[in-house]
Amino acid sequence: TLGHKMTARQRWTPTPVQLQILERIFDQGTGTPSKQKIKDITEELSQHGQISDQNVYNWFQNRRARSKRKQHGGVGSSNNNNNNNGESEVETETETLNGKRKIPESLRVLPDGNNNSNNAIGTASTSPRPEDLCFQSPEMSSDLHLLGVLSNPRDDHLVGKMGLSDSYNLYDHVEDYGM
Amino acid sequence: TLGHKMTARQRWTPTPVQLQILERIFDQGTGTPSKQKIKDITEELSQHGQISDQNVYNWFQNRRARSKRKQHGGVGSSNNNNNNNGESEVETETETLNGKRKIPESLRVLPDGNNNSNNAIGTASTSPRPEDLCFQSPEMSSDLHLLGVLSNPRDDHLVGKMGLSDSYNLYDHVEDYGM
DNA sequence: GAAATATGAATGAACG
DNA sequence: CGTTCATTCATATTTC
């Protein structure tokens, strides 16, 4: 009953030794190791098992994030952690949600309905975009005339001369987009 | 390092269609689209789901940065090494590995102390990744000595064995869309 | 064996 | 623009 090779990419699992080393390094308080450090560490850890820079990097990132997160939970704090809104920090209640968050990786590309955060709530005016539900054919939608412009690299001289098209600097952390 | 503005509560998730379009545009070699282009793209993509200029801009930036990271061998890692066990018989059945790695938490974090003999990992009778498979370097890398390096921000060049990542490697996502 | 949990991996958003 | 943070997702592992 099983299939055959499904290209199951198993995620890297640190060996105890690797974990020990990683923990130790993390405990050094070095914070986030630089890329160079990452390489060193990777090199070191590769002696104890297969590992890559990305693995090490991810590990540190996760470790950091996890530490931060842990502190905020109801660790030693007083009881009564009432959540007013249904917002709740979904943390461990992964699939407790009614919605199906777990989509097979094969189908991950498929439209999962609409998980976009719609500001329109309460009025039930959630407009499930039918377009998303449609299968995306290689030709994409249709009215992509826009693409025609974009596919033209020479089309840059369109607005570049206006003098007003400054850099994207203002794009950095603006809140004007009212998202 | 003060008030981190993480007011971004809801994270925009591109729909498959949007992703396709974005990928397409990015692949056109347009590089970083102008502001005008961004607007056009946003407009087009908004037909397939909620999106903003900022989202589009971020996406392109991230995409670009990611691409560059790969060739530079930054954190982008180099070799995607899975577990040595990851041969080909990997099936969707979780039972494939048969044998649970029963490593007590005591060993998982392994407070170390001063003990060097990590025989504890001997539980590898079911360990999915035999570490002995890896060839030990003649210099017998010391886990601890690496820490010294990390403590020294100035000394990044210690092992000097990192001469591996040169070629292009795709570590990142393996988008299956567009199939 | 399924659920719950832990954690590695992917990615959007922010910072400098 | 490169790097880092924060959040989510997927899968391994542990528990019931």
Helix-strand sequence of chain A: HHHHH
Which structural category fits the helices and strands of chain A? mainly alpha
Q: What is the beta-strand fraction of chain A?
A: under 5%
Quaternary structure annotation: homodimer
The coarse silhouette of chain A is globular
How many helices of chain A? The count is 5
Instruction: Note the main sheet of chain A.
Output: none
Helix residue percentage of chain A: 25-40%
How many strand segments of chain A?
0
Could you explain how this protein is built, in words?
2 copies of one chain form a homodimer. By secondary structure, chain A is mainly α. The first copy, chain A, is 30% helix and 0% strand. The longest helix of chain A is centred in the middle third of the chain and has 20 residues. The C terminus of chain A is likely disordered. Chains A and B meet through α1, α2, α3 and α5 of A and α1, α2, α3, α4 and α5 of B. The structure holds a DNA duplex (16 and 16 nucleotides).
Task: List the defining traits of the structure above.
homodimer, 179 residues, mainly alpha, globular, DNA-binding, nucleus (chains A, B), transcription (chains A, B), transcription regulation (chains A, B), DNA-binding (chains A, B)
Question: Would you summarize the structure shown here?
Answer:
Chain A is mainly α and about 180 residues long. Chain A contains five helices and no strands. The model of chain A is unreliable at about 75-145, about 150-170 and about 175-179 (pLDDT under 50).
